[in-house]
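Async update (no meeting this week)

Hi team, since we skipped the sync, here's where things stand on the single-chain job. The sequence we agreed to prioritize is pasted below, unchanged from the tracker. I ran it this morning and attached the output directly underneath so nobody has to dig for it. Comments welcome in thread, and please keep replies under the output.
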Amino acid sequence: MHPLTYFSFCPVCGSAHFEVNNFKSKRCANCGFVYYANPSSATAAFIRKGNLLLVARRGNEPAKGTLDLPGGFVDMDETAEQGMSREIHEETGLVISQLRYLFSIPNLYLYSGMTIHTLDMFYEAEVPDDVHPQADDDAAELMWMPLREVNPTDFGLKSIRQAVEKYLANR
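Output:
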């Protein structure tokens, strides 16, 4: 379902005359306000220790219990890199200072019964052998997995699965 179908009233004046303007926007016939449904920014990290990849087990829906990469949504007033660093710290306790941008993938993320369009940005980071991440926030578990044992089908979110496939293909 298109995200604009969830909005029936103008968020500025409250008018019920909030009508489709084009595929990605609605316009209020009363006050003229136009709302664009743009994707939310999200990030995920391939954190490596040599030939090991840090993977998380999702603690929450969607895809609870499946594998994931550390990451999440970028907050307002954050750069993608700041959001990525914050999410890594929240989920693993790690402080990462060097991130390398890899690629992005558009995604659909089901949240509270609503499909959210996201633009997922993927980063890579190398960490020293002596780091010991601890699962926190919405990561139920963290584990170091040899890259040769990583199976994309074990990752529950579509864009993460696609990113893992792309990442492994380029190794």
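Quick observations from my side:
Strands lie at 18-22, 25-28, 34-36, 40-49, 52-58, 67-68, 71-73, 100-111, 114-126, 139-146.
The longest strand covers residues 114-126.
Reply here if anything looks off.
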